[in-house]
Amino acid sequence: MTVFKPFHHYMVSEYGEIVGNHGKLTPAPDKDGYARISLRLEKGKATKIHVHRIVYMAFHGEIPPNMVCCHIDSNIKNNHYTNLRIDTQKGNIRDKLKNGTWQAGNTHPRAIYQDNDIVKIQDTIKENPQLKLRNFEEILKPFPRHLIFDVMRGKRKTRDQRIKDMESLSI
Hints:
alpha+beta
């Protein structure tokens, strides 16, 4: 039998189903694939909130400031209350690295540039350290100036480079 707990004037199941006065509500995925739903929490004003956060708060209590609600197995579709915990953002990223679900570079759903694009820019910069940004713009057409500049500053990296950076932080 499915267990339900109250959350404001809604009922929340242990699996993340949310029931209001007029029946079951249907969440929609956000840009990253997390289920999100619009609830009227205060004075009839609609607030969009992630389903996993609602489940956590209904079954475990409030989420402290500067903490995030994490999926233990990194499966964003598994909103069962036993699969949710709170941690820092750093701890959440550590879990995603461990579980192989951290989205960066080619694996990010909104990636515009591929890892091989970043490597091409990095290699060109290494081969021509004396050149300025405007020279790289000519050499590296059609890549935009902001991308070349970010790679030069070390702000854009491949997925493997980002993972290596995260592992070196010993989080």
